[in-house]
# Entry
Amino acid sequence: MSDFRDLNPGLRHGELLTMSLTQPDRAKQNEHRAIVVGAGVAGSVCGRDLAAAGWSVTLLDKARGPGGRASSRRIEPHRFDHGAQYFTVRSESFQRGVDSMASRGTVKLWRPRTAHINSSGISIDDVDDEPSNRHPRWVACPGMNDLVRDLQHGLDINFQHHVERIERAADGWEVTCADAARTASAPNLVLAIPAPQATALLTDQPEIRCRLEAVRMQPCWAVMIAYDRTLDVPFDAARVEAGPLRWVARQSSRPDRSPLESWVLHASPEWSRDHLEAESKIIAEDLQREFERILQVAGLEGTVSPVLCTAHRWRYALVDQPLGAPYLWCAASRIGLCGDWCLGPRIEAAYESGRELAQCLLRRREARAQAV
# Structure
């Protein structure tokens, strides 16, 4: 995929994009261009809505592929949804988006057998009283990252572009990636990344940095574990209320997944924070032992040994204290920020944040057009 081709198709790799603002026609065209840093749910929705309105948008993301925290990992022959586990729907706008994706088969309802696990034992949830009856659980298919892949359809996405520096330029913003060879500039800049990562880039934006100080995010260690036989336990997903784990889920219980026996384990924010810098191999071993202790409590007979067990650290996984506003936009600098951290720890929050920031930019364009 070419670098920044929407910004200027004539650029060679590594060239810096510049435009003359002395030409009225080019200046007007230049105004409706944006770089979006972060191609998760929020960044993809923001970029999609701007592009649908005729803007030229380029998305940059440091990952190797789509997903953000709604990622999937393939470790043959297994596939794990090791980030966001599912999503629910409350707003009308998100419902419309989910209905559209459901019509294409991108998302489907997930109806696992669920349980709660605490120090007293395991309580199997009554299907009729299950909270998901009010807000059903949805997952993307065949992996959670396909949700983001769907949102990104038709957009110019540049993966493995780790943005290291942003600076004000004559025509707006100049973005430099980690290898220093990939740079670009555009009048409008959107940061759709976790608040702590945005803070590190905003060295000359003290007012925005001050707003971000209120946001708190928590880490999460995730373990992907697989077995060579089916685990005969009476649940497919469980919330754990004691010990280092907080969530376990059987991957084969999700629609359009392999029948192979594989699970995702999420540690609690507190345990993850206390072990944040530990080696992933040690984390995997510790959480494997805890999971197998839970399996014994659940009545699993005999011992089991995994055929695969590996850990992934999500440094900024969960929103603990949101901003309390759907987005941030600085009109003077023409920089905006969006993400789930604006509204709360849900995929829907990321979707609405990106959507509302895009609407903010489009309203400003309409207002300027009317003024002219």
